[in-house]
Amino acid sequence: MIEFKNIKKSFDGKDVLHGLDSKFLPGRTNLIIGSSGTGKSVLLKCMVGLLEPDEGSVLYDGRDFTHASRNVRRDIRRDIGMLFQGAALFDSKTVEQNVLFPLNVLTDMPKDEKLDRVNFVLKRVGLENVNQKMPSEISGGMKKRVGIARAIVNNSKYLYCDEPNSGLDPQTAILIDALIKEITEEFNITTVVVTHDMNSVMEHGDYIIYMYDGRKLWEGDNTQILDTTVPELQDFIFSSKLVRSMKKMENIK
Amino acid sequence: MHGIGRYFIFLGNLFIKREPANTYLKQIMEECIKVGIDSIIIVTIVSTFIGAVTCIQTAFNLVSPLIPRYVISLVVRDMTLLELAPTITAIVLAGKVGSNIAGELGTMRISEQVDALEVMGINSVSFLALPKIIACVIMFPMLVILAGFLAIMGGYLAGTLTGVITPQDYIYGIRADFQEFNVFFALIKSFAFAFLVSSISSFKGYNTSGGALEVGQSSTSAVTNSCIAILVADYLLAELLL
User: Fold this and answer.
1) What value does the mean pLDDT take over residues A77-100?
2) Together in a domain, A165 and A147
3) What is the DSSP string of B202-239?
4) Which of B17, B111, B122 sits opposite A105 (nearest CB)?
5) pLDDT at A250 over 80
6) Nearest chain A CA: its distance from B36 CA (Å)
7) Does residue A63 lie in a domain region?
């Protein structure tokens, strides 16, 4: 479980996060949604330790990450996998070397066992026979799959995905979303996805928090979101013609 | 001052909570090849011509019949060992290796590869920069030794082929009044320059923010700052050790 309490962050005197609290449970796809510039990525960076919150703390299964010593942080971080917006694969390494990387650096596993694990996760994300390809030789969707494989290869307990379907065609985006959900349930991972894609929200939002101007304005799941009475959230979700039509059909029913 | 402070914090982070030493061995070998083997051609060309030019220009200036001809090669030797081999090689390598380091780390920074390392719990500063710095500290002195030898050979070829000095005079001058400390001094300089070029370039690349334009700016800044640092260190080492 990931929990954050009273997270505050400001840049140059401008408050970006105004005391956020929430809990993300394992085995569920937890979504952080909101328009651009509302502080989603800042919150995500505070949670993984790429930014330090001014106040508040982030807890991983009860372990305080924010105020922990360097060694404790390091241990917690080794349970975290992250899929970056642009996949952030190492350009100079092959697909196999990219996925192998966390095992090489963080574990003492025998070489054969590491390769078996790499092949297992690559197969699990639907990639076979691409082990020796360079990141520049594969498509955007495949890069995201490799990114997911790298994030889970070390048996991560927590998976963060920063806009996993940005830059992908709708069909591939749906496949990537589905893959994240399957992996979350299969390995009982606590997954946190930052997105503003309404399709992801409606398909996979087991738990959703909506952020607006650095505040949490709403929380719930994908069955409740269309009935929201929060005007800002209504503006956000009904800006899509598709969702407006869905709502209309629901009302007719 | 703020930048200098951040540079020293960066240097401190190189050695704090780094990964086990065996993690770096393969990387250090790869970096040694990039820094050393891949720089041999440019070092060969630059040092040979510098030796040749030094020989010809020294001969051009020594017009007095009272000065023996072997002084030409003596000057080439001391100029090469004391200044040209370590300093010019370091400046050439600041352009080649320094810009490469800054560009590579800058690109990794803007494409979130550095963040990916941090999220995995890896000290990205030491993981990325330390192998480059160690490789430079290993390879620069070797390149400086090569540059010194080739510059003296370049002077020999230019001097003897143009007839400004005989082969016997040249070899006599190379051996005359030789001080071993000059070689030691050149090596001390090469270690210092290697550390400055690699650490400044790593610092500039690592702290890149923005996009492709900023990566280019970081590379330029890495080269200019490295060159300035080389010249300042060159003066300080000369004052301290000579």
Assistant:
1) 92
2) no
3) HHHHHT--SSHHHHHHHHHHHHHHHHHHHHHHHHHHHH
4) B122
5) no
6) 19
7) yes
Domain count, chain B: 1
Q: Cβ–Cβ of B113/A106 closer than 8 Å?
A: no
Mean predicted confidence (pLDDT) in B73-83: 93
Q: What's the rounded Cα separation, in Å, for the pair B94 and B86? A: 12
Residues in A touching B23 (Cβ below 8 Å): 104-105
Decide: A58 and A47 in contact? Cβ < 8 Å. yes
Token digits of residue A32: 């952080």
Probe site for chain B from A82, A104, A153, A156 (most B CB atoms < 10 A): A82
Residue A107 corresponds to which tokens in the numbers above? Answer: 């574990």
Pair A240, A163 in one domain: yes
B102-111 pLDDT per residue, tens: 999 999 999 9
What residues contact B40, with CB distance under 8 A and at least 6 apart? B143, B146
**Full residue range of the structural domain in which residue A15 is found:** 2-79+157-252
Count of residues for chain A?
A: 253
Residue of B nearest to A44 (CA): B119
Same domain, A169 and A71: yes
Q: Which of A227, A212, A231 is nearest to A40 (CA)?
A: A212
| Complex ipTM > 0.90 | no
Entry pTM:
0.87
Range of the domain at B140: 2-241
From CA B160, how far away is CA B156, in angstroms rounded? 6
Whether B120 sits inside 8 A of A106 (CB atoms) is yes
Domain count, chain A: 2
Distance CA B102, CA A82 (A): 25
For the beta carbon of residue A79, count every other beta carbon within 10 angstroms.
Answer: 17
Select the residue from B17, B112, B127, B215 to test the A interface by mutation, using most A Cβ atoms within 10 A.
Answer: B112
Most B CBs within 10 A among A45, A73, A74, A161, hence the mutation to make, goes to A74
In a domain, A198, yes or no: yes
- Distance between CA B174 and CA B152 in Å, rounded? 8
Per DSSP, the three-state class of A33 is strand
B49 pLDDT higher than 90: yes
Amino acid at B85: A
> Do A100 and A165 lie in a common domain?
no
The whole-angstrom separation of Cα B26 and Cα B32 is: 10
Residue A251's pLDDT band (boundaries 50, 70, 90)? low
The verdict on A215 and A118 lying in the same domain is: no
Q: How far is A156 from chain B, CA to nearest CA, in Å?
A: 10
Would you state the structure tokens that stand for residue B80, as one six-digit string? 């090469």
End-to-end Cα spacing for chain B? 30
Q: Could you report the per-residue pLDDT of B115-137, keeping only the tens digit for each?
A: 999 998 888 999 999 999 999 99
